[in-house]
Design a protein that fits this description.
disordered N terminus; 8 strands; alpha+beta; 2 domains; 344 residues; Nucleotidyltransferase, domain 5; single chain; Serine Threonine Protein Phosphatase 5, Tetratricopeptide repeat; 15 helices
Length: 344
């Protein structure tokens, strides 16, 4: 992409003078409500009722221009291609929407509600975050209405385990509403799978909080998760609130969701840069070996072989070193270099 094209793309993401358009008939501050005072939200009105909306803009993570090579690797498997329409949407960051939900249950199912739906998009070089909160189950239709409008505007979804959990759950809620059709996605990038491929050998766990600390350099970004709420406690906090308990614990849930969205956007930037670079800056052999395997599965055998060689040179634990040597020999054999395969 030329410098002029990049400048035009960035210019398109600058803030505009008008506010983000809201569903009719509008919004207004909510008075005398504990959850509103705690979270600083607005009453968002839609044709199906109303719900609470919390909006914040963050300067970090900074906007990351999607790279064509990265998009190819993230969106297709071996011998698969994507449509021209999908490709156009993917290459336009104005069409991207980061999404993360907090729910009444971690197992999913038809009785599980997404009581807090966090969405984010690139704006003014940073991340605009909007969180849709159900003050009660009767707010669900209003939340779904608002979410459908947001996805219609930005139909490229970016999630972390969203293909397995968040989006199927939301699709089921749209279906069960019988009044709001689930919006169609132009594309869905789930970053859990590339993250697992790239860093599981070194980290073991690839939960977003571990990735923030070990991969994204959260301290440099000024992010703090020391008082973060445990995911297992979140459903109970919401049920306690519905039963008339304090709304105070839900403030930590909202912060947790905000951090997850910011971490998700930062994770895309990291993965995007690694997959785009011919020689990534990573120096840990386990990360390079993970990258090699990911590239090989995605059909980029030449780069996979290069990363595998770099991983061996950087140093690997014994079990990984033997496996890397075998995979490097197999790649050499596949490209017809039998002498190199025999040497390995």
């Amino acid at each position: 992409m030329s410098s002029l094209d990049k400048f035009s793309r960035l210019a398109a993401l600058k803030p505009v003078q008008v506010a983000v358009p809201l569903a009719e008939p509008g919004n207004e501050p909510m008075q005398g409500d504990e959850i509103t005072r705690l979270l600083g939200g607005l009453c968002q009105k839609t044709k199906f009722g109303q719900h609470l909306t919390i909006r914040n803009w963050y300067s970090t993570p900074e906007f990351a221009e999607p790279d064509g090579r990265s998009l190819d690797l993230l969106t297709q498997n071996r011998d698969e291609t994507i449509s021209r329409k999908t490709r156009a949407a993917l290459e336009n960051p104005e069409k991207w929407l980061f999404l993360d939900t907090e729910t009444t249950g971690l197992a999913g199912g038809t009785g599980t509600y997404a009581f807090l739906t966090g969405i984010g998009w690139w704006d003014a070089g940073g991340l605009q975050v909007e969180q849709l909160f159900m003050r009660d189950f009767t707010d669900e239709l209003s939340v779904l209405c608002e979410l459908a409008e947001r996805i219609a505007e930005r139909p490229v979804l970016v999630t972390f385990n969203g293909k397995t959990f968040d989006w199927p759950l939301l699709e089921s809620r749209f279906t069960m509403s019988r009044r709001i059709v689930a919006p169609r996605l132009a594309a869905h990038l789930d970053l859990l799978h590339p993250a697992r491929a790239l860093w599981k050998l070194r980290l073991g766990s690839v939960r977003l909080i571990e990735l923030e600390q070990e991969v994204l350099d959260a301290e440099r970004l000024g992010w703090r998760r020391a008082d973060d709420v445990a995911s297992a406690l979140i459903p109970q906090f919401y049920f306690d609130y519905l039963r008339g308990g304090s709304a105070a614990p839900l403030a930590s849930v909202v912060r947790h969701n905000q951090m997850d969205l910011r971490g998700l956007a930062a994770l895309f930037g990291k993965i995007n840069s690694i997959l785009a670079e011919e020689e990534p800056e990573e120096t840990d052999g386990r990360d390079l070996f993970g990258l090699s395997r990911y590239l090989n599965r995605r059909g980029d055998a030449p780069r996979a072989a290069k990363m595998c060689s770099m991983a061996i040179e950087a140093g690997l634990p014994t079990e990984h070193r033997h496996q890397a040597s075998r995979e490097l020999a197999l790649m050499a054999k596949r490209r017809g270099d039998h002498a190199e395969a025999a040497r390995l």
